[in-house]
Each structure stands twice: as C-alpha cells, then as structure tokens.
Design a protein that fits this description.
Blueprint: E1 5-8, H1 19-24, H2 32-52, H3 59-73, H4 79-90, H5 98-107, E2 111-116, H6 120-130, E3 138-141, H7 152-161, E4 170-174, H8 177-186, E5 189-193, E6 209-211, H9 217-221
Parallel strand pairs: 1-2, 1-4, 2-3, 4-5, 5-6
InterPro entries: 2-HAD, HAD-like_sf, HAD-SF_hydro_IA, HAD_sf, PGP-like_dom2, S-2-haloacid_dehalogenase
Catalytic activity: an (S)-2-haloacid + H2O = a (2R)-2-hydroxycarboxylate + a halide anion + H(+)
Family: Belongs to the HAD-like hydrolase superfamily. S-2-haloalkanoic acid dehalogenase family.
C-alpha cells in the first residue's frame, strides 16, 4: 500500500526541543543539558499522566510546568531566564534536514501534515519561525480531542482532520518511539527517526523503517 499523506510529529522530529536551552540557556552553565532533558521528560510525563487521569491541560501549560520543575529541581530561581527560555521554545529551531525532506515529498506529490500534542498557537509559531508553512498541507493538533498521544482517539482525529480514508494511507513519522508505537497500533504506516541512537523498545509495535534523520525518508517511502 502506498501512503498518500506523510504526517510528521512536530517536537523532536521537525523541531529541536533542546534548541531553546541552546539559544537562551547560557546562564545555566553546566546545568544546561540536565535542565533541558528534564524539561522535556516532565513535559511528556505530564501529558501522559493527565490523560490517564481523564483530564486535559494544554501543551503550553505542560511546557511551562515542565520547565518550572526542571529549574526548581536544579535549585534555580530566575524569572528572567524562565521567560527567555519559554520565548525561545515558541520558535524552536527546525532540524536542517526538514526543508529538503518536505520539498522532496512535495515533488513526489505527497500530501504533508504535522500532527502534534502542541497547541495550535505553539506549532504555528514554530512553523512561522522555520518558514515551512508553504510545504505543509495540514496542521493537526490534539486539542479538539482533549487527550494526548498515544491514545487511539487522537490518531483517529488526525486521520479525519487530514481527510484521509484509511489508516494505511498515512505514513506517520516521529522521533519518539512511543509515538511510533501508538501510531502503529492504530494502523498507520510508521517510520522512526532515531536521531539520538536509542535502543529499540515496544516490541510488536514496530516501525516499517528506522532512519537516523529525514534525509532517507522519501526513499524509504518509495517517493
């Protein structure tokens, strides 16, 4: 089956979640790496826990809470630094392979989409900062479902929002292995962008291909 739509996760896949600290975190010194990693870990943890509890707080709120925890855990109280880091997060850097990959998919007549936990305001800001808007056909967020990946209902929402008839018509691309597992369970064709060389997990919910970046995606899709 040939996928008609290539759907990308945003954070960690198209946009570098650690670029906020790289750009605005100089005052953190040697704590920059640990703070950035804990910020991301808590952001995701909060999304899973709130969904499991049947609640929903938008992803920007969870992003703020994750940063607050990471700073407090490392003994940092600096309102100006907090504001600078959050401002930088709104305009995260796109990875250098993003534009060439999207351009190649467009030349191959593939529809392209983002499907993200992020709020529409968050992802719109990142898209504008990176200039990739003209290369996208759809931008889908989980907000209408009021739940987070990897709940099946959010992948069903993405399918419908992109106007695609069947899950197998979507090639879903993510750097997050748990997201790949959720999408594969729902029925999407999945491609794991393993940017950091992580070991595999979630056996039985396997991606169709594992790539180190987006440069080989079109070939993996046969595009």
């Amino acid at each position: 089956m040939t996928a008609t739509t290539v759907m990308f996760d945003a954070y960690g896949t198209l946009f570098d979640v650690h670029s906020a600290v790289e750009r605005a975190g100089a005052p953190l010194g040697p704590l920059a790496g640990p703070v950035s990693q804990m910020w991301r870990t808590k952001q995701l943890e909060y999304s899973w826990i709130t969904t499991l509890m049947g609640g929903f707080d938008d992803f920007w709120t969870l992003t703020e809470r994750g940063l607050d925890f990471a700073l407090a855990r490392h003994g940092i109280s600096d309102p100006a630094l907090r504001s600078a880091l959050l401002a930088a997060y709104r305009t995260l850097d796109a990875y250098p392979d993003v534009v060439p990959a999207l351009e190649r998919l467009r030349r191959a007549a593939k529809a392209t989409a983002i499907f993200t936990n992020g709020t529409r305001a968050m992802v719109d800001a990142a898209i504008a900062a990176s200039g990739i808007g003209p290369l996208l056909d759809h931008v889908v967020t989980v907000e209408p479902v009021a739940a987070y990946k990897p709940v099946a209902a959010v992948y069903d929402h993405a399918l419908r929002a992109a106007g695609v008839a069947a899950p197998g018509d979507i090639a879903f691309v993510s750097s997050n292995r748990w997201d790949v597992a959720g999408a594969a369970t729902f029925g999407f064709r999945t491609f794991w962008i393993n940017r950091t060389g992580m070991p595999d997990e979630y056996p039985g919910r396997d991606p169709e291909a594992v790539l180190t970046d987006l440069s080989g995606l079109a070939a993996a899709l046969g595009a």
